[in-house]
Design a protein that fits this description.
homodimer; about 350 residues; alpha/beta; Rossmann fold; 3 domains; six-stranded parallel β-sheet; six-stranded mixed β-sheet; 12 strands; elongated; DNA-binding
DNA sequence: GTATTGAAGTCAAACGATTGAGCGGGCGTG
DNA sequence: CACGCCCGCTCAATCGTTTGACTTCAATAC
């Protein structure tokens, strides 16, 4: 590996001072047009590589932002990411990404690293179990930080999220409208704001309709994956075969649940209705299609990016919280309730 | 935003020299145990943040590596990524990621940036249309670079890839064994090594069996997405309804193709067999399951990471090329050929 | 009692780029 | 013709860390 070419080398090669070279490369008007092109030519020839560490040390600025995502395995985050990235590209920033694999240590070390390395700001979809205090400790007041997708409750960071509770209420309302009375819930634990809020929305809506959801119809999963959804659904089918409507925390879980129903010979959208959350692209590429709460990923991504850009400009502005309304997308996985459950009808008639 | 705390500030606060502080924080034995803990305590108290730019400028080393992925929308890359990341984490490196959105400019600017910023090395799944010469121009001999997933033909970089041609031959062989004679191909253009190699494998295998694949049964798509696969399949169904076996460049395309068959009322795995490539997790979570060429993502990812680590250690070693064999995973989307196509049988009998 | 060693620091020179101040000479102006 | 001014460049200090050379003091060796 040859020694790296520096401004000094270029200065020697061109016969001007180091400062002149530096200015020439950055098109400073103090250097004559002729010399600028000459110097640039030689720089290219000698394979000069700008040393951003040195420059940034001197200038004290950067133009990169960092995004840390709790887990890229869920395609919904890729969709968020795309919106965020395009917004940042528009403003000329380079985006550095980290996949935290739902591991607080990876997340913390990435955040710390970005601080040390000098990133203009951080966009975070926090991993499960992120401690607001701990994170505050790391970023102090020094580092513009915005959360998206998941909230960090009890913190004064900026946020851009979906109305999670509201989305689930839409789902339940629709299923009730279709005549369903026996609900099941497949979802995560209580460690993320999304898990809490979506479950809360589910419960609230059921209560509003005067419907119960006994514990044996609630299945908590450790991770958000198709496989977890499949196992949860299988458990519910065994334990509570009378369930006709299943609300899932996410599409990934719902897709697993659908698989379990296939395996059990239950016809989706007829004998059992399933609804997910996120509206992954995949949801419309299966048969029957998966009904889902469509999160405004574009809008949330753009909002998150803009919140960060604003925060970078004004670190002392009050914390902002953008909550964006989702909407329901209906496909074949939901249909009218077929079972004439007397108990259910009673509730309905009342 | 408060001024950043520096070693100098810590030195003043603790009453020792800057060098002593620097050494203390890095646990240099020259500083006494007592002073080390004292200094660390004060550093934490004052919210000291290590300035990696300065440090790295002085030391001339880094411990981060960069990965640039052509397009994260295809889940197969997430699966590659996971393997790569875990391998790097094992060796204590931080992984910075870039999603190139299949755009050569984004890729080039990321690569350049990583060079400027000082990354230990680069792992690249190159975007379509990457020019070996141009890339060589950017990285020169200075930057350890390894390609994975896609090759860059005509270059002397290290590579870790799947045997793309071989994989497609497995697929064709299986379909021929099931009695199929009328094949269609859904795949990308000629701009990536994977597109070329997989199509070559497909053609080679057909020729070996003495089977044709006329142009109207070959559908080129501009991008690798479900939607592109759906449209391609719809076109084939219209143009060449006698086709009974469809080989797709990727699972994403195959999933779209399956959707198109559903829409056209063609029963998958009965009237028409479809086979994909990659073996996404999703392939086993639809009904019927998608038969696919299973790429050894774990193995390739680990190989790529190790190639890069080796390359960082020895920049002058000869270029290595690891080609890892895929295997076939059969699910419900492939089945025996039902149509008694005389022409096909003739070919078979010969 | 002098030389040697070692522990625990200090000092100053880097690393590579940036930048405000300075400087020489040619030109326009009065 | 002297003065100021602008052009086009050079100088030197600086950003925050690291590191090899050097110092100081005390303890040990002979």
């Amino acid at each position: 590996m040859a020694e790296r070419v520096t401004l000094k080398n270029l200065a020697e090669a061109t016969g001007v001072s180091v400062s002149a070279v530096s200015m020439a490369l950055r098109d400073h008007p103090r250097i004559s047009e002729a010399k600028r092109t000459e110097i640039k030519r030689i720089a290219a020839e000698m394979g000069y590589i700008y040393n951003r560490q040195a420059a940034s040390l001197r200038r004290g600025t950067t133009d990169s932002v960092s995004i840390c995502i709790n887990d890229l395995h869920n395609p919904v985050f890729i969709e968020f990411l795309t919106a965020i990235e395009s917004e940042f590209r528009r403003s000329g920033k380079l985006v550095l990404l980290c996949n935290a694999h739902e591991d607080p240590e990876i997340q913390a070390s990435f955040v710390r690293r970005m601080l040390e390395q000098g990133s203009a700001g951080l966009l975070l979809s926090p991993v499960e179990g992120t401690e607001p205090a701990e994170l505050r400790e790391i970023v102090r007041d020094r580092f513009p930080t915005v959360f998206f997708s998941r909230m960090l409750e009890g913190s004064d960071f900026d946020h851009a999220i979906s109305d999670d509770a509201g989305g689930m209420q839409l789902a339940v309302d629709e299923l009730v409208r279709l005549g369903h009375r026996q609900f099941a819930w497949i979802g995560g634990g209580q460690r993320t704001s999304t898990a809490r809020a979506r479950y809360r929305g589910f419960k609230t809506a059921l209560e509003r309709h005067g419907l119960p959801c006994p514990p044996e119809q609630v299945e908590r999963v450790a991770e958000t994956s198709r496989e977890a959804g499949r196992q949860a659904m299988a458990a519910i089918l065994k334990r509570a075969p009378h369930v006709t409507a299943v609300v899932c925390f996410s599409d990934l879980l719902a897709l697993g649940a659908i698989m379990a129903c296939h395996e059990a010979g239950r016809r989706i959208g007829k004998e059992i209705s399933i609804i997910g959350h996120d509206d992954l692209e995949e949801a419309s590429y299966i048969e029957p299609g998966l009904s889902s709460v469509k999160v405004a990923k574009e809008e949330i991504g753009r909002a998150a990016a803009r919140l960060l850009l604003d925060r970078i400009i004004d670190p002392d502005a009050p914390a902002a919280r953008e909550v964006i309304a989702p909407r329901l997308v209906l496909r074949g996985s939901t249909g009218p309730c077929l079972s004439a459950d007397a108990d259910g009808l009673n509730h309905f008639a009342r």
